[in-house]
Design a protein that fits this description.
55% strand, globular, 2 helices
Length: 276
């Protein structure tokens, strides 16, 4: 739970929570910076894109809504060992991919849905945690002119986090899990309709089911006036229901990214934020 901390109690709270399960943070912070990322045009593509992009920095530590660099959480309920929140993910547009030449481009997608999370283990100060997360997300795609539903995705994960390692301020997270998606989702990315079939790209209908495995290593540190972080993701499509699609050109690959942002303003209101 978050509690408002009067400014006169700040010094006392900073001392008394040194070994507790919370830390003192502003209710909100805003800033901006730059991010560099290199990734495939879509899962299974052997063509890659590299971007240097503006990176907003938005943090909000509310009772229900919590936004950070790592995740967006809308808490539905929370207990000591189990909670449900809102999970958000997505993909970038894939336009101009050689494997899809002559086919419609892939619009960016947004994935939103509930996630049931179980806290399997944590240290007394909650700086080291081991969780199971089970997000179920609906997928929508849009070219910013129309919005269309493109199926469902279930992504159970094991999540291990280490906060403030050796009191250095560095945080490390390791996430691994499998993905299951329905036929509609796989169809959007991996179907080849008969009118787009060629000698090298036969017609194909992707079934639903297992969609691969992902492992992510991430790190970040919050400095007084800026934030730095990065990640590396290993993705495997071996054994995926759609692995025989002619649009799957690579079954294993890495995605990497790094960002630095500067904090422009923050709330004078302070709250206690639990490690979780």
């Amino acid at each position: 739970m978050k509690k408002i901390i009067p400014g006169a109690l700040l010094s006392f709270c900073c001392l008394s929570t040194a070994q507790a399960q919370t830390e003192i943070r502003p209710l909100w912070e805003i800033g901006a910076g730059v991010a560099a990322i290199d990734f495939p045009m879509y899962r299974g593509s052997d063509e890659r894109k590299s971007y240097l992009l503006p990176a907003p920095y938005v943090v909000y530590n509310g009772e229900v809504l919590q936004v950070s660099r790592e995740r967006v959480r809308g808490l539905i309920f929370k207990q000591d060992r189990v909670e449900m929140d809102v999970s958000v993910n997505g993909s970038v547009p894939a336009d101009g991919a050689e494997a899809r030449r002559g086919m419609p481009d892939l619009d960016p997608t947004l994935e939103v849905g509930p996630s049931l999370n179980f806290h399997l283990w944590y240290t007394e100060d909650k700086k080291n945690t081991f969780d199971i997360r089970m997000p179920l997300r609906a997928v929508i795609a849009s070219d910013f002119k129309r919005v269309h539903h493109e199926g469902w995705l279930f992504q159970p994960q094991l999540n291990l986090d280490f906060y403030d390692i050796d009191r250095s301020g560095w945080n490390i997270g390791v996430v691994g899990g499998v993905i299951y998606s329905d036929r509609q989702y796989h169809s959007y990315f991996y179907d080849v309709a008969p009118q787009y079939a060629t000698a090298e790209r036969p017609a194909y209908e992707a079934p639903g089911g297992y969609a691969g495995t992902q492992f992510i290593f991430a790190f970040n540190k919050r400095y007084p006036g800026h934030w730095v972080g990065g990640f590396a993701k290993w993705d495997s499509l071996k054994g995926a229901a759609f692995e025989n699609s002619p649009l799957v050109k690579s079954k294993e690959y890495f995605t990497v990214g790094f960002a630095i942002t500067w904090i422009f303003d923050k709330s004078d209101e302070l709250v206690e934020v639990e490690y979780d």
